[in-house]
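Input protein
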Amino acid sequence: VDVLYADALQIALRQGAKHKAVWVTGHSLGGAMAAAFALRAISEEGVRPAGVYTFGQPLVMSESLCQFILEEMRGDYVRFVNDGDRIARVLRPYRHAGARVYFQDGSYNLREPMVAFTAQANEPTEDSPAIIADENEEGLQLLTEEELAEFEQEILRMVETDRNAVTGASSSTVAAAWWDPFTFHYMEEYL
């Protein structure tokens, strides 16, 4: 992370980031990296991105980092989540922050910027002035232990299916066993 951040920051600064609008975006782990870049660029270099847009980003922030990004970015930090994309619902005990666009059944729902906890979190206090809300849509809540175990098994089956395809199992066996647990996570699903 440190090497990527240093390289990205140097490129942004050479391009005039302190005087130009810089937009940061990423998908999946790239979305997490985009959020991390924005946090560090603001806090360490005073370079505030004009916006951060992430797609299928896993939960990566502590509550205090969520508060920081919410105060600094407000509506300029937006994460996009597909219904059925389990990657955005896996990591505990982290949070999401900013605005959220949730795609479901051919439409979308925009939630205003806030810290969203999908797991147990501390109640707001006087020291925590930001709005904190639970993700109430079923497709946005953290995976239960059972759902997580099922997801892990699906990934293992996918790996085994890929291995069988490479080692010469019949194509009908491979086709019958194939189901991609990341179907709703691929970037083309967001386009």
About this structure: Residues 119-124, 128-132, 170-178 have pLDDT under 50 and may be disordered.
